[in-house]
Here is the input.
Amino acid sequence: ARLRQTQFEISAANLAQCPPEQGVEIAFAGRSNSGKSSALNTLVDHGGLARTSKTPGRTQLINFFRMDDNCKLVDLPGYGYAKVPEKMKLEWQAHMGEYLEQRQCLAGLILVMDVRHPLKDFDRMMLEWSQHQNMPVHILLSKSDKLKRGPAKNSVLGVRKEIKAYGDQVTAQLFSSHNKEGVEQAREVLANWFGF
Ligand code: GDP
Here is the structure.
């Protein structure tokens, strides 16, 4: 229920612009079009929330949403716009790296991947980074409604097999913003990390 109170707080272009460290943050990352915004909206039950971060000019920013002083959700810029110049990609990586490495209040990372195209280079990079920081990662295999039961199950089992190398810190589930599969399961992970 507390997730419903989430409101947009502020956007930051780099670590220096992030609000002061307070309480616990959970970050959302994913390639663009992975369904990250939809997942965030669905989890907080607030249709327009992550649209805030899609307004032009904000897509490259780190967007903060606060539930209360001690619980924040952070929408990291979507990765992989085909037309983004190499220089911007490098800047993006620098900012992400900086945030993930230095943000003390970051408790965990939700990594959103299209269930039909999991574990791309970007996803593996995020997993490597997180492991380096000893940061738990929960993978949402999004748009699960796009696959039939069998293939969806196979996808999650395949991903679980591949992430075994990272140990218990990395978990994965099916998720759909359309038919709400896995929403409660994902909310439990957030509640756990927030310490509800
Ligand atoms: P983002 O770029 O990662 O933030 O992705 P969006 O949340 O904007 O979603 C990208 C596209 O995928 C949009 O056209 C959404 O309508 C669609 N989409 C997102 N989640 C789902 C889902 O659970 N099921 C289906 N079928 N489509 C989805």
Observations:
- The beta strands are 7-12, 24-30, 62-68, 71-75, 106-114, 137-142, 170-174.
